[in-house]
Amino acid sequence: MSRRCGDAVSRVAIVGGGLSGLMCAVKLKQLGLDGVVFDTGKHAVGGRCSSRHVEVGGREYIIDHSAQAFTAASERFRRVVSYWQADGVVAEWAAGSVGTLRLAPPSVPSAPPGRGRFTPRSANEPPLFICPNQGMRGLAEYLARSIAVKRPVWVGRLERRQQRRCQDLDLDLDLDLEATASGTCMGPVGGT
Q1: Do the domain assignments include residue 106?
Q2: What SUPFAM superfamilies does the record point to (predicted)?
Q3: Fewest CB within 10 A of the end CB: N or C in the chain?
Q4: Structure confidence by residue, pLDDT tens digits, 161-174
Q5: What's the pLDDT tens digit per position in 61-103?
Q6: How far is the C-alpha of 27 from the C-alpha of 16, rounded, in Å?
Q7: What CATH number does residue 148 fall under?
């Protein structure tokens, strides 16, 4: 469904398929606007919410190799996270299980070798959330399930003509707007 502005249909190109780009597309869809996310990811969307499945000794592990967790400091974002919790996508990391481990220096003879001191995160800090089933990539895939995504795609340039044109894709997309939600994975955007 698209929102019509006069005779024009509002379509939005979102450059970057990390959480910001995915959330932008989800919100646009809720508002009745068509959006398409362009992402460079070879394996999946997610940007810094990326996970790999690794087998070690015949057992599979999910490794979050960029963001391992996130906080929900604002009330507005906590409401969003509560929906994700209800759907089983994210879970609160158990209090006291995350903190700082300081190894005992060699000059402390009473400390067993390789041992140190663990200090839990402060109870005053916002809770941490993880994606226990599929790693952080699971959250990105959850958000992407109901939106249009094109990947792996490098958007090197957007140019305004009668229609917006993604130059590296050689596509005329009849776009009205673009949003950039990309970190370092995007070339310069010109002519917008």
Answers
A1: no
A2: FAD/NAD(P)-binding domain (SSF51905)
A3: N
A4: 655 444 445 455 55
A5: 888 888 888 998 899 999 999 999 999 999 998 877 888 888 7
A6: 15
A7: 3.40.50.720
